[in-house]
Design a protein that fits this description.
Blueprint (H helix, E strand, L loop, with lengths): L7 H4 L2 H23 L8 H5 L7 H24 L37
Helix pairs in contact: 2-4
């Protein structure tokens, strides 16, 4: 394995973001299908018609899954806008949310220490 650090461009590939959004959409659709009873055996036609005013559990699952896909994709796109384009080619070698590393200041230069005026 090489010791090269991944760049932000490698980390934030659009296909990966689409995959994340698709996984969220599929998860939401499956949860909706299970919670509406789409996989249960229907005994009579009154139960089979459902109480969704013409929207079957499968159609409801597709609508919820599609909505979750779109919302996740928009959310990830908004997060991408936070990244400065100049930082895209820099390597990531530390946690991104930490303050920039600066050399330690001597105790006398810090506020509250040293001579008072």
């Amino acid at each position: 394995m090489s010791d090269e650090k991944p760049t932000r461009r490698d980390i934030l590939r659009p296909l990966h973001l689409l995959g994340i959004a698709l996984a969220c959409g599929v998860f939401a659709a499956i949860v909706t299908l299970v919670s509406t009873g789409a996989f249960t055996a229907r005994v009579n036609s009154a139960i089979a018609s459902g109480t969704y005013d013409g929207l079957t559990p499968i159609a409801l699952g597709l609508v919820v899954g599609g909505g979750a896909f779109i919302v996740t994709l928009l959310f990830l796109a908004m997060l991408i806008l936070v990244v400065d384009p100049a930082d895209v080619t820099k390597t990531v070698d530390r946690p991104v949310l930490f303050d920039p590393e600066t050399p330690d200041e001597p105790e006398s230069d810090k506020p509250g220490h040293g001579a008072s005026s």
